[in-house]
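User: I'm curious whether this sequence folds into something compact or stays loose and floppy. Could you predict its structure so I can see for myself?
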Amino acid sequence: MDKKELPQPTVLPESLATVEPYIPVRNGGSPRPRVVLDADRSEVDALGQLRATWDTLLKHQWLILATTSLLCVLVTIYSFKMKPIYQSTAHVDIEAEVPVLQTLNDLFRPTEDDASSIGTQLSILQSDALIWKTIQDTGLAGQLPTPESKKSEGQVVGASPSMKTALVADAKGRLHVEQLKDTRIVAVTFESTDPRQAALVPNTLLKNYIENNFRTKYDATRQATGWMEQRLDELKLKVEQSQEAMVSYEKQNNIVNLGEKKTVTEQRFEDLSKDLSLAQSDRLSKQSLYMLVAKDNGEVSVAQGGQGNQTNNLLGALEAKEAGLREDYAAALAQYGPAYPKALRLQQQIQDEESLISGERVRIVKNIHNDYIAALQRERALAGAVAEQKAEVDRVNQLLIEHNILKRDFDSNQQFYDSLLQRLKDATVSAGLQATNIHIVDEAPVPSAPVRPDKSRNIEFALAAGLALGIALALTKEALNTSIINVPEMEKLTGVPALAIVPLGQSMPVRRTKILTGIAGRAAETYMVELSVIQKPEAAISEAYRALRTAVLLSTAEHPPQMVLITSAAPSEGKTATSLNLAAALAQKGSRVLLLDADMRRPRLSAMLNLPNRRGLSDMLSGSSGFDAAFVQKVPALDKLYLLGSGPRPPNPAELLCSRKLEMLLEWLRQGFDHIIVDSPPVLPVTDSTILSTFADGVIIVVACDSTPRAALNRACRVVEHSGGRILGTVFNKVAGRGDSNYGYHYYQGYYGNSNGNGNGSHREDTNDQSAA
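Assistant: Here's the prediction. I'll summarize afterward.
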């Protein structure tokens, strides 16, 4: 195909960075860009990030597998060497703390739960003293003497303080005490290599804990009882003394206590006061009756006397009889007249009755008068007795002031003594009651199987942990990696496109004489990466170099670049392999191609092509010989591929390249070849490539995947640009992965991997290490 027929590359403006490359339209239509929506971009970014992570894991798969395997092996060995650990748990119910009994009724008084009380009991359950007692009882102390052989201070003979501390710490480390949620149940768990000991320790610990709890309460009760007994003796003596003082005072002052806080004098005064009140009432009653029946002159009014003595039975009978006689007399008078004997007789009887009635009335009045006088005298006598008794009461009350003081002292002492005596009796009963607020719910059984090690679970955990650790190490290693690992990163850093992605390959052992024979069929099974386009044209790596050829031809709009400089930022990144394969690919297209080995410090092209390097570039530049076409050697494998070697190694390569002869030489070479591929030294170590870039139509920088540092690549691009060189793009070399990070490579493998059907160009061959210049 002629150069003029090559399609011109399209350069997109910066503002269309979110638009995909142009899509050709059939029937002569103009290209139309397809805009990528934000949702599509987000999905692509997410998938790209996922693919990049997956590629990182695949890249470090051996690190992940090694980490996982090592951890699994270590855990497996540890699990099988570890002694089996048995675990047993006992459950105990710790009720709310019962307060000290004041009376026997307190036994039936409800108690309230107290969270702090449970916490206190848990601390006591794990106390050093209780655990040490358990260690002695269960034989955890090993060779120590039995608990019966104790010193006076309570330590076992032969147990030093440091040993005791170590044993207690070891027991605490294997003991676990936990309160079950929303209950008063406490679980006591112990671990041991002996299953019987694992059950014995928690059961013994709970037994000692209950005994210690009871002993503490009993000792506290006995201590309180002893204090109360001592205090009771003192109170008893005080009661006796106060009672004796009160009795002596009563005897000395003739005070008789009738109970209920009254003396004899007070009782007598109270009785006389009641009698005087009754006498006064009786006197007033009789005085009013006497005044009613007495006349003003002292004579008796018969009519009034009769009316005032209606209660007198005799007077009433006389008056009734008189009334009957008067009725009979009135009847006889009316019937017979006044002279009739019956009337006269009745008249005489009436007169006799009137005499009797008058005499009775006089007698009654006299009796009323006598009663009045007697009542008056009695009142006067009682009034005098009350006055005398009142004086006696006043005197006795003065004496009772001191008596009451003595009596109150006696009563208070007696009351305190009775109360303390009652409490002492209750405390004595309480001390004898072995009631406790701690009850064992379940004893610890002898375990039948160990809880550790769980070999299968440990291995599963080690597998998961190893994978997680390996992935973490891989991601960390990748994060700490400062080299270029994917194409987008490289393009973003350099600002130039990636012209080709070259997969990782490996040079197979081959005799160089065979390479130059041109017999491609015999050399198909054994080839060198530097000559993969010649020896292995169907391989994916060869197709990558052909893609580089196409990208180079389309890299400039006017015409394909004639002179292309191949360089890199640092050594051993694949410059020589890229130069040789690109030149071979251009020669296969039919162009006359010259390979110029401008690396006069470490030349390799002649050795790769098995051609002599006795004369070459250094001879022409140094002036030892002219521009002789004989220095240009034809490569036997391809008709249109030629080599101009570096020649003998000069002492000053940079000075030779700065000479005028270089420009003249390049002008002479341009006239004879369609393309000149220059293999140059790396940019950063020496200045050779910087000088050569000013004469080249374009510069291609080779970047080794996961090898070239970002800073080195960025510096190399800036050096070339500042010197006036034109960077056509980069070659992403030695790509060993697939996916987003190295897009393009998997297409080569998928399409060219088994093109011959015999495994040539297989993934095994394409993904091996590539020997680079």
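Summary: The chain is about 55% helix and 10% strand. The mean pLDDT is 76.
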